[in-house]
Amino acid sequence: MPTTIRRGGVTVLAAFLLAWALLPLTGAHADDIPLAPGHRLVPGYTGAAATPGPVPGDDPPQHPYLAPNGRSGMHADAAGSGTYPWSGPLGHAPVVRSASMAVLGGECANVTFDRAGRIVTVCGTFSGFVVKLLDPASLATLAEYALPQRPSTVEAITRLDFSRIFKDTSGGAYSYLDNEDRLVLADSRQHIVRLAHTRGADGTWRFTVDADWDLTAHVPHDCVTWTNLRPSGECDPVTSVMPDWEGRVWWVTRQGRVGTLDPADGTVRSFRLPGEEIQNSFSVAEDGVSIVSDHALYSFRAGPDGTPEVVWRQVYDRGSGAKPGSVNQGSGTTPDLFGAGGHRYVAITDNADDRMNVLVHRREPGVPDDRRLVCTVPVFTHGRSTTDNSLISWGNSLVVENNYGYENVTSLTFGRSVTGGVTRIDVRADGSGCDTVWESPVRSPSTVPKLSTANGLLYFYSKDPHPLGIDAWYLTAVDFRTGEERWRRLTGTGPLYDNNWAPITLGPDGTAYVGVFNGLVAVRDSTPSS
C-alpha cells in the first residue's frame, strides 16, 4: 500500500527491495528469517508473564459452513470478531521460531487450522501466491499448491512499480477454511477454487482441487498477463469470498460487484454498486451479509434466486482522499457483527479528514434510517488517524488501532515508526451511545490484532522509534480490561520481520503466529501457561 516515488523510471521501493535482497543478514538456521544488524542492542523481552483473566461473554455464533471459530480465517470467525476461545502466550519466557517462505517476499497473509491443528495458509511471493500446509510446531512445509500469478505481480515486474502488489487484496489473501477442512478462495483467473489436502500411502501430503467455479462470464477479466501486457478491456479482480448460512458462496470484486455462487449447481448471480470500490473482506451472520464499500456500509441478503439484494445502506464520511495507512479513500475495516444483551450491531470506521471515527449501527432490517446509527466516536490524533485493519469486537466492546503513516515495508526503516495508538470503546448496555474506556500508546503499524477471551490479553505487533536506526519488531500483549501493556517479545529486526498488513493468529495450542514480509513467525511460551 505504498505511495510510489519514481526516480529515473525505477521506483524507490523496487530499488530498496533489490538492495535488501543482496545484504548479508544473520540467521540461526537456513530456513529462519534472517535478522538485520542490531538485534543484540535491543531488549529481547520486557514486562512479566500475565495471570490469565478470562473475559466473560458469549462466543460469536458458529457458522455451519466454516471451520470452528478461531480456525477458519483472517478475522477468526464469520462475524469478524478477531477473538479466540483459547489462550495465546501468557509471556512465560516466550520463544520465537520463524520460517522463510521465499528468497524475496513470502508473507503468509492468512493462517487457518485443520482438525489436527495443521496450518493451512496462503503465502504471497513476488512470483505469485502459494497455498501451503505447514507443521504448526516446526513451520516445515508439508505440501504446497501454486496459484495463478496475479496481474499486479506482472505489472510490478514489467513496470518496476511494486506498489501495485501492496495495493492488491485479490488473488487468495482473503480465503477461508470450510467445515470439511477445505480452503476456499478466488484466484486471479476469476475462478473460485476449493482445495482439499490429503495424505498419500507414502506419507506425503498434497493439495487437490475439490471444485472449481468459473466467474468470468460475470466479472470483466481482460487482465495483465505475460502474454497480454497491454489489455484494452476491464479487469475486475475478486477480492474476497465467504459462505452464508445457506451454504452459498458470496464474492465481491474491487470494482463493486457483489455476487453469489450456489455450490450445488454452479449458479452464479451478481449485483453492481456503480462507482464504488470494495477492498476489504466482509462478514456474515444468520441475518445477512455485511459489506463496506469506499462509500457506504451495506446489509445484503439473497433473493429467491440467489441474487444479492440490499436490505439497507448507510453512507459515511469518506474524507477528501486516501490517507497514508489506507488502501483507498474509504473505510479500511471489515465490518464487525457483535452485541450483547439482545442487541445486534455492526461496526466499521470511516475516513474522516481530521479524526477517523468508529461507527456503530443497529443491523436489524426494520430500523428507520435516522435511528440506525448508534454512535460516532472520534479516535486518535488530530490529522493523524486511520486504520486499514478490522476492529476487535467482544460483547459490547470494540478495540481499534491506528495505522496512520504505514504504507509498505520501506515506511518504517531506519528506526522510524508510526503515530500509533489503540483505543477501546464500549456500547452502552441500553444502546443509547458509546464511551471510550481506555487509550493506549502502543504503536501497532499494520497488523490485524487479536484477543484471547480465555486469558484476557490483546495481541499486537509493535515497533517503536529507535535512535540508532534499529528496526525491532515485537509481539506485544495488552490487558483487555485496562489497556496496560503486560509484556513484549522481540520477534526479529529489519524489514523482513515487518508484518505488512498480515494478521496475528492464535493457534489452538496457544502459539501466536504472525505473517511477516519474508514468511511466518511463531511465538509460544516455553513453560506451561496455566
Offer a quick outline of the entry:
By secondary structure, the chain is mostly beta strands. The chain is built from three helices and 36 strands.
Overview of this protein structure:
The protein is mainly beta and 530 residues long. The chain has 3 helices and 36 strands. The chain has helices at residues 12-21, 151-159, 163-166, and strands at residues 6-7, 10-11, 45-47, 83-84, 95-100, 105-113, 119-125, 128-134, 141-146, 176-177, 183-186, 191-199, 205-214, 238-243, 249-253, 257-261, 268-272, 283-285, 288-292, 296-302, 308-315, 336-338, 345-349, 357-362, 373-378, 392-394, 397-401, 422-427, 434-440, 450-452, 457-462, 472-479, 485-493, 504-506, 512-516, 519-524. A 6-stranded mixed sheet has the order 3-33-32-31-30-4, with no helix packed on it. A 4-stranded antiparallel sheet has the order 5-36-35-34, with no helix packed on it. It is globular, with a radius of gyration of 21 Å. Mean pLDDT is 91; it is low at 1-12 and 14-30.
